[in-house]
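QA checklist item 7 of 12: single-chain prediction sanity check.
[x] sequence parsed
[x] length recorded as 154
[x] structure emitted
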Amino acid sequence: MYFDQCIKNRSVAFVCGLRRWINVKAAGLILLALAYAVFGDALLLAIVHSLHLLFEVVELAVEHFLENAFGLTPRQAQFVLAYTGLGLGIYLLIKLVRWANLAVMQYCLAAKALANRVEESARNFRDNIRWPKTAIAFGAICASIYVFSEILPI
């Protein structure tokens, strides 16, 4: 029944998907925090070292492929691989910067919309308040605090 409700309404489907995504992210964060609590920094170093070794193995395999497939010397294969990696890195950096810029713009627009809503809410509150009664009540509360907080001589 829950999934039928998700399929019927698009906004409900979005909320259902978001809820599942948050649950997966929360479970991943809990497992990551648990692993960090148990193993500490050694786990992070082991993961980074393993990824570096994997990268080196892939790089060596690609270099050997370039040498055998195109008849390149080992040095030429390293140059081809290095400049290909540099181009790919620059391309990914440009994509990352565009994505970050888009995310910042969306957050700025959301913050501006929130500020406008808060300003409108404050304006509505200011326009609907009864100022004379509020001023009298505020003055009475302040006077009561002043009188009863002083130590009066008996």
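[x] summary fact logged: The mean pLDDT is 83.
[ ] second reviewer sign-off
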